[in-house]
Write a structure and sequence with these properties.
Layout (H helix, E strand, L loop, with lengths): L6 E2 L9 H4 L13 H18 L4 E6 L2 H12 L5 E6 L2 H12 L3 E6 L9 H11 L3 E5 L1 E2 L4 E2 L3 H9 L4 E5 L11 H4 L3 E5 L10 E6 L1 H10 L9 H8 L8 H17 L1 H21 L16 E5 L6 H10 L2 E2 L11 E5 L7 H16 L2
Helix pairs in contact: 2-10, 10-11, 11-13
Bound molecules: pyridoxal-5'-phosphate.
Length: 364
Amino acid sequence: MMESYPIPMTPGPVMVPPEILAAYQVNYGSADTEPEFLDLYNQTEAELRQLFATSNRVAIQTGEGMLALWGALKSCLKPGDRVVAVASGVFGFGIAEMAESIGAVVKVVPIPYNQTITDWQAIEAALADYRPKMITAVHCETPSGTLNPMEQLGQLKREYEVPLLYVDVVSSLGGAPVKVDEWGIDLALGGSQKVLSCPPDMSFLAVSDAAWEIIEQVNYPGYDALKPFRTAQEAAAFPYTPNWHGTAALHVAARRILDEGLENSFQRHAVVADYCRERLVRMGLSLYPARSAVASPTVTAVNVPEQLGWPEFDRRLRARGLVVGGSYGPLTGKVFRLGHMGSQADLDLVSRALDIIEDVLKTA
Ligand code: PLP
């Protein structure tokens, strides 16, 4: 039997509330054929639209965040298409590599991992030189705890008449403002296991009319293809058996956020993040993002205390019932993360986590 930690603080998958888990304990009918499933899908789409602040169609797919990231690239790009990838972390650089792997010609605008976008001129120069079909960007870089500004990227997209703006909002949606229509995002990519606090089994994308046109032209046919979702509801035909349980869980999760009020959810995340960071700094730990960067309200990245090192620090936290996140890529072993998102954006939970960290540091 795996260990169950009483104080979960990983930045995804986050703790799943009983109300959401209950959606998996129902015996549903056959999602392919029953109108009741279509009602649920339509209702969930309407709720997700509110989270995305969009009137665009939202495709709800089975498979977690990466499925949306891949599916949107493969559905919109053909070999030789040009992409400008704004990259400030593991996911930003990763998306650039993914686009390259499917034959796109990618110009990366690199930003240090501990920074967020400030050099708009570099992005503008890339767009002017390159005239891409797509700009890719990541709103919250979960591995480094940063939140990139998106509004100005939307303005540049319009100015340079770039057909598609692709933005990963997997770990910000619901915890920080995401304004798909206002910011001009054509493909806004979300996942179930972050702020929504569901298991890692679903993804959802807000897709603009311009993106649907391109999806039709590209006509990509794979399992992760977006094309069938343009007409799935009208035709009552999905490309595979839809995940009734996962969709029901997303519906409960989105409802919880909307019932709380989106602004209240943003405020709760901001308050918890501030509290978390203040206490960490008071304990003598240093935050990973540079002072000039915008830290994300959903996740805090912290430099690993040198006197312990990551494996020992992690072991001591787990021994006291706290599980935090390590990090990836160049941040492996150097940065640890507290995911105060969704069900874990909770002052009491975060305060108990910080008590344990404080205790471990005192006895180091
Ligand atoms: N994008 C970001 C910013 C993420 O943090 C993650 C997961 O950590 C993903 C995409 C991929 O989501 P998933 O792991 O659910 O496939």
